[in-house]
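Figure caption, in words: inputs first, then the predicted bound structure.
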Amino acid sequence: MNIANSQEEGELRLYQLTSHEAHELLWKREISALELTEAVLGRIAQVEEQIHAFVTVTEDLALMQAREADERIRAGDASPLVGIPTMIKDNICTKGIATTCSSRMLENFVPPYDATVMQRLNRERAVIVGKGNMDEFAMGSSNEHSAFFPTRNPWDRERVPGGSSGGPAVAVATDEVIYALGSDTGGSIRQPAGFCNVVGLKPTYGRVSRYGLVAFASSLDQIGPLTKDVTDCALVMNAIACYDPRDSTSVPQPTPDYTKSLIPELKGLRLGIPKEYFVRGMEAGVEQVIWDAIAKLEQLGAEVEETSLPHTRYALAAYYIIAPSEASANLARYDGVKYGFSASDAESMWDAMDKTRQYGFGPEVKRRIILGTYALSAGYYDAYYLKAQKVRTLIRREFEQAFERFDALVTPTSPTVPFKLGEKVEDPLQMYLSDVCTLPINIAGIPGLSIPAGFSDGLPVGMQILGKPFSEETLIRIGFAYEQATDWHKRRPPL
Ligand code: GLN
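Bound structure (glutamine present):
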């Protein structure tokens, strides 16, 4: 990279760097963390009005952290993320910085502690530029359920960025930050990554600590990176993946060095293509992009074979019992007493709780709470929740069997390109269907990576790569090899 030349041409765009590129320049002292952070803040000032990715911009904090990072670099700190600006989804607790979950309920909530992932990033001296917009409490696929404002897709601002991590995906796609952290309960990292042309990884359940992640559906939630390329994905995973005794579902397993998987060839890898993921209603343009990408993987040395996962068709129904059930229990804590919004016009304690929840939650959150409360109620528990858990076991077993034959499975991330704002928001079922390819992965607890695979009608298409539990290294290897052979990930929206 010739920064000097670019400077002469007046084209130095530090905000366009990836983490690994920025790290190299920081380490060689060709740039400072302060310059990088100022460039990123300038970019936010330039484009944020058009896309609305941030709930909060922490400019002063970022500048202070950048100065500290520069001191650390001068003292010889070579951590890969030192001094690199990032956005954190607004459901990850950040000490002293509002964490709203894009909900009226938590609009003024300032956590007294950091999530484990934040402690990890702070230890690396990352620069926190702000908090990312999302669907309220991570319930949604379009960011239209944010209580504040919808984030817009930078490829076409009349379209949705996906959700619920829409803010983080858009901020990375538009170079407002170098990378971001999101959360994924049923596709919330991968689907917006696919819709915005960035890389998104949902790690294995238990790989990254959920401590400090505001709970939506605890048996499905997982934090993961959104990045400009697969190398950055590996670097962020190195920083955030760890065993954490404060999360009882965190798995006590050492974290590998994910950068060791950045190998640009796929010889001997067996890839399965499950036909059920090419669902009815899938757009022909999306299907074409995915088959072209699969052909590319074959050229790179992978052995490709079609396969079948017949229980896939039950995953959506099982998810929409399990996730709302867990949500209804998790969100019971918002009663106006302990934290968050509290209705002041109440006549009694019960009235206060009623009104707090009535005013504090938006319609989609209420829909999920009602659905979940119903599914868990006496008399219906066996018919719904228990049945869904049994289906979950079948789906998990089916994946286990597939991974006896295949190193990974390849599917589309979503059946369509980004849809129009307003197109599905009045029709919850249509909205839920947009996650049909991503939900089964959370149900099974396995890792899933979405990478840019091409365009249909000028809009991005994501390819999803799935592996058995704790096979993030394989996914990173496949994603990296594909990325080395293509340049889709380098395309940026015209803003
Ligand atoms: N879109 C899915 C839902 O609404 C998944 C959301 C998520 O992964 N947080 O539940």
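The longest strand covers residues 448-456.
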